[in-house]
Amino acid sequence: MKKYLLILAAISFSAISLSAQNDAAGDWAQFGRYAAANSEVDEKPYAVLMGDSITDGWDGKDPEFLEENNILCRGISGQNSSQMLVRFRQDVIDLDPKYVVILAGTNDIACNGGYISHEHIMDNLKSMCELARAHKIRPVLCSVTPSVQFWWRKSITGVSDKILRLNEMIKAYAEEKRIPYVDYYSALADENGALPAEYSDDGVHPNTAAYKVMEPLLLKVLK
Does residue 69 fall inside a structural domain? Predict the structure, then answer.
């Protein structure tokens, strides 16, 4: 029996070690996503967009808007605020923009990296803002865009209420610290707190029409 337990312990340790190696090899924060693009930046950007797929999709749906306004997209699909915080130095600070526009929270609420409280989401947002200000970069905070269900995580309930609560917390912090706040939610949500079909194909990700609504709201803060 003792020999069996020792073998079992050895197998478990090997599995844990292998898992750790896989995590390390998997580039959890996705530092590699923009590494080459960052090395090729030769003009100081006016603003950097830091976010998840909501931001990541902007580059494909309306690249002209970003190019015309000297804005770099540094969104990564699926990311939560913890991952954004980890890569904030290389994807924002090292680029030395005038502004960083932070849009995070959808994947935290969806528990993409496991459960995280609203308070800890806010801690990540606060840390990004503090890092930006320490490097003389002006932070801009954005509301989480509307949704009533995450199609990849249907087990998450009360999505619209959770988004509303987080947006209230983001807005309150922005007001307290005199950080510009862009309210995409109010401009896009229908009466049920959903992202309607005119603005999205899946109820979560903005389409080109939605970005056209979001763009003047952002420019009003940046200009």
Answer: yes
